[in-house]
């Protein structure tokens, strides 16, 4: 078709050129125009700029006559600039997508692009990507479990969105198991116009079924049975099934045994609590997303504080970031976020602090294990680097995580005085500020050991 259009328009242009008999005029106004579409007897001519558009519009009857001569059809001509055309066609694509997307329930905000990968979720992420590359073939079902707020829902929407992008014709459905349950009840009672046909269309005519939080189907015998049939039906046809739960399949008591045994036929993966570095990256990622507003006052120190103190749940981590932004905008006029202000922002909420179960002695012991030293080595007099560096690090972590007074830290570490301890703290702090990779890695690993 587009080759056809090109030929038609080339013929038109050669007539125009001949009849116009003005080379410069022709080159300025006509040469770059294109006939890009003919739809519903309207021909769309695209020109470079609004100036050309004006000119073309003033000669419309003439152009339509030329087009009639060449194509032997009476088309109306519509003139658009390049950018108008692009906007309108992407708009059309969007509209087509919208009408095409019966309700897949996918949240378009949850994408792999904004999912931060770390050791805690790598396995699930890799399984998710594998499923996207060969839906229904590699891992069926894919079963992802983990505590609330660790990214299961985000990940399974990302799967749906990526498959949708690669294979727009696949029918995908995301539901929570609660929604499945409600549908089942409505169908059983013939409520809200939900008939069996409606149910089959929604659940059986699918390529990908994503069921979030299956644990809500516990002890709901009849809907369990209904789900079992839906599951089998899709599975038999090699349709991909993805399920999440807060516990592993074996612990899903209250769910039909035959269903649980189906779940473990595929691949089961878990999502765990994110490590410090992953938490920090998630915060940076969320900050980028919020980046419309003027929030560059959120400095690295603030992000590190949140990452250190909100450790159990990504949802809480995000909440803490929003809280700090809100607090800073409303209560901190200077916009500089000092540590005092950061602490003030969280003063009246309960922090599931990483330091909750960390003690000075735990830090000391962790460092000894990490460096294979004895307690006496660590608190002793030797200034040999082999023990002095771990000592500085232990002092640094004690101060940073627990805010123990320097004097008290001095007592723990071989009765050293206040200024020696302070120097140790600053020494490590400076190296970290200078982005020293070796020290950054060590501190991160130690924090992970201390926190988990
Ligand atoms: P779950 O379903 O496991 O309860 P969600 O998927 O709802 O958790 O995640 C809670 C919030 O945390 C969401 O806003 C999600 O975007 C965010 N989140 C979780 N893990 C990540 C991650 N690895 N990268 C980016 N955001 C994440
Ligand atoms: Mg969820």
What does this structure look like?
This protein has helices at about 1-20, 25-30, 50-60, 60-70, 80-100, 120-135, 150-165, 175-190, 195-205, 220-235, 255-265, 275-290, 300-310, 315-330, 340-345, 360-370, 375-380, 385-400, 405-410, 420-435, 435-450; strands at about 35-40, 40-45, 75-80, 140-145, 170-175, 210, 240-245, 265-270. It has about 450 residues and is an alpha/beta fold. The strands form two sheets. It has a five-stranded parallel beta sheet, sandwiched between helices. The protein has a three-stranded mixed beta sheet with strand order 1-2-3. The model is unreliable at about 95-100 (pLDDT under 50). Adenosine-5'-diphosphate binds near residues 121 and 151.
Compact summary:
This protein has 21 helices and eight strands.
Please give the structural blueprint.
Blueprint: H1 2-20, H2 23-29, E1 34-39, E2 42-47, H3 50-58, H4 60-71, E3 76-81, H5 82-100, H6 122-133, E4 142-145, H7 152-166, E5 172-176, H8 177-188, H9 196-203, E6 208-212, H10 221-236, E7 240-245, H11 257-263, E8 267-270, H12 276-289, H13 300-309, H14 314-331, H15 339-345, H16 360-371, H17 375-379, H18 385-402, H19 406-412, H20 418-433, H21 437-451
Parallel strand pairs: 2-3, 4-7, 4-8, 5-6, 6-7
Antiparallel strand pairs: 1-2
Helix pairs in contact: 1-4, 6-7, 12-13, 12-14, 13-14, 16-18, 18-20, 19-20
The protein binds adenosine-5'-diphosphate (ADP) and magnesium ion (MG).
Main attributes?
452 residues, alpha/beta, single chain, three-stranded mixed beta sheet, binds magnesium ion, 57% helix, five-stranded parallel beta sheet, 21 helices, binds adenosine-5'-diphosphate
């Amino acid at each position: 078709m587009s080759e056809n259009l090109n030929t038609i328009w080339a013929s038109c242009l050669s007539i125009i050129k001949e009849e116009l008999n003005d080379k410069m005029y022709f080159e300025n106004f006509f040469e770059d125009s294109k006939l890009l579409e003919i739809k519903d007897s309207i021909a769309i001519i695209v020109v470079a700029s609004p100036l050309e558009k004006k000119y073309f519009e003033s000669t419309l009857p003439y152009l339509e006559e030329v087009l009639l001569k060449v194509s032997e059809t009476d088309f109306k001509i519509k003139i658009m600039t390049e950018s108008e055309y692009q906007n309108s066609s992407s708009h059309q694509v969007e509209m087509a997508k919208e009408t095409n997307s019966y309700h897949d329930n996918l949240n378009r905000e949850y994408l792999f692009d904004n999912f931060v990968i770390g050791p805690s979720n790598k396995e699930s992420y890799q399984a998710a990507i594998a499923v996207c590359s060969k839906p229904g073939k590699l891992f069926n079902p894919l079963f992802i479990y983990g505590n609330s707020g660790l990214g299961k829902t985000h990940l399974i929407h990302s799967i749906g969105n990526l498959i949708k992008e690669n294979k727009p014709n696949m029918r995908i459905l995301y539901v929570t198991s609660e929604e499945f349950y409600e549908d089942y009840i409505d169908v059983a009672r013939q409520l809200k116009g939900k008939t069996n046909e409606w149910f089959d269309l929604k659940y059986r005519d699918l390529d990908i079924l994503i069921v979030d939080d299956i644990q809500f189907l516990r002890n709901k015998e009849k809907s369990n049975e209904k789900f079992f049939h839906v599951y089998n039906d899709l599975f038999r046809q090699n349709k991909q099934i993805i399920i999440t739960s807060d516990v592993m399949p074996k612990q899903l008591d209250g769910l039909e045994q035959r269903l649980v045994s189906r779940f473990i036929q595929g691949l089961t993966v878990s999502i765990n609590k994110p490590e410090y570095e992953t938490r920090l990256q998630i915060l940076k990622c969320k900050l980028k997303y919020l980046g419309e507003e003027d929030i560059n006052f959120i400095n690295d120190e603030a992000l590190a504080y949140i990452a250190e103190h909100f450790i159990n749940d990504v949802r809480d981590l995000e909440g803490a970031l929003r809280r700090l932004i809100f607090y800073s905008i409303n209560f901190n006029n200077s916009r500089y976020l000092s540590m005092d202000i950061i602490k003030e922002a969280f003063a009246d909420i309960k922090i599931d602090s990483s330091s909750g179960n960390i003690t000075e002695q735990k830090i000391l012991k962790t460092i000894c294990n990490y460096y294979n030293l004895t307690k006496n080595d660590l608190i002793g007099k030797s200034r040999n680097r082999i023990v002095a560096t771990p000592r500085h690090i232990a002092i640094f972590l004690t101060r940073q995580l627990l805010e123990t007074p320097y004097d008290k830290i001095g007592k723990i570490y071989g009765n050293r005085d206040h200024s020696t301890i302070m120097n140790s703290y600053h020494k490590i702090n400076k190296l970290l500020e200078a982005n020293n990779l070796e020290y950054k890695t060590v501190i991160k690993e130690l924090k992970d050991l201390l926190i988990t």
